[in-house]
Design a protein that fits this description.
Blueprint (H helix, E strand, L loop, with lengths): L3 E5 L11 H12 L5 E10 L3 E4 L15 H4 L9 H13 L4 E4 L6 H10 L7 E6 L5 H10 L8 E7 L13 H20 L3 H5 L1 H4 L3 H4 L5 H4 L1 H7 L7 E9 L3 E8 L1
Helix pairs in contact: 5-11
Length: 259
């Protein structure tokens, strides 16, 4: 049985630059058991209804601006799996979760940046999934839980986001204070996850140190993929921290394994 993962997608530059985090993602792809397929919830695909890609081959979405031309030339030729997409949809139906098939949308950088590092040959079938930051955390968790049985079929469920994601922190001059804020929130999050204290995690805005700064109201879409990934491991409820680092003292590059 494969685990589920939360993977920070960081800056889009992780796809092309040589960095500690990029090298770690390459190592992760080499050392993990190879999955038969991937189901990936991306922070950069928001929808009011759960969307499930039902597509044979993905186009590219360059959903960012101001980066080097090289980044806009990256092609990650991922393929879908129509049978698996329909199985995902059936599992959601069985759990009473409203959903729709998406037949055209390409891959956003929440998906292809990390996958290009982990699986550069793009030879593992992929089902892209949306997230809904307006749902309650327990509802996001329930969507992941509906897909938990896929792990026994060697399908890797990934939540791709960033746990501390607030662009306003880049403008703060006291970098030590920013770093303390990011690490304070991340340490609280890690501790609650290791206890599988979902009741506290669902109330992160009020209970976590700096919760509403680390996860601002307009930035929830980057945090919530962690609930989808956790839900997919509800049957095992174990957490391992695989990687933690900071980008510019403010954004967290964290990788957690569930199950």
């Amino acid at each position: 049985m494969v685990p589920s993962l939360f993977i920070a997608h960081g800056s889009p530059m992780v796809a092309i630059e040589d960095s500690e985090y990029a090298r770690y993602l390459e190592e992760l792809g080499r050392t993990m058991s190879r999955p038969k397929a991937i189901v990936l919830f991306s922070a950069h695909w928001e929808s009011g209804v759960q969307m499930v890609s039902e597509i044979s081959a993905y186009s590219m979405i360059y959903d960012f601006g101001g980066f080097p031309d090289e980044l806009y030339r990256v092609v990650y030729p991922a393929k879908g799996d129509l049978a698996l997409s329909r199985r995902v949809q059936q599992l959601l139906s069985d759990a009473g979760i409203e959903h729709r098939a998406e037949l055209k949308r390409g891959l956003d950088h929440g998906s292809w940046t990390i996958l290009r590092r982990m699986y550069p040959d793009a030879d593992i079938p992929l089902i892209a999934m949306s997230v809904n930051p307006d749902l309650k955390p327990e509802e996001q968790y329930a969507i992941g839980k509906a897909l938990a049985s896929l792990r026994a079929e060697d399908v890797l469920v990934i939540g791709s986001g960033v746990t501390v994601h607030n662009f306003g922190l880049f403008g703060v001059r006291d970098r030590d204070a920013v770093k303390a804020l990011a690490l304070g929130f991340e340490n609280w999050l890690e501790a609650r996850m290791k206890e599988w204290d979902v009741d506290s995690l669902y109330r992160y805005e009020e209970l976590a140190p700096y919760g509403k700064v680390a996860v601002p109201p307009q930035g929830k879409e980057h945090f919530v993929p962690i609930f989808y990934a956790m839900g997919a491991a509800d049957d095992s409820r174990s957490v391992t921290t695989l990687h933690q680092s900071l980008m510019m003292d403010a954004f967290t590059n964290s990788v957690y394994r569930f199950g």
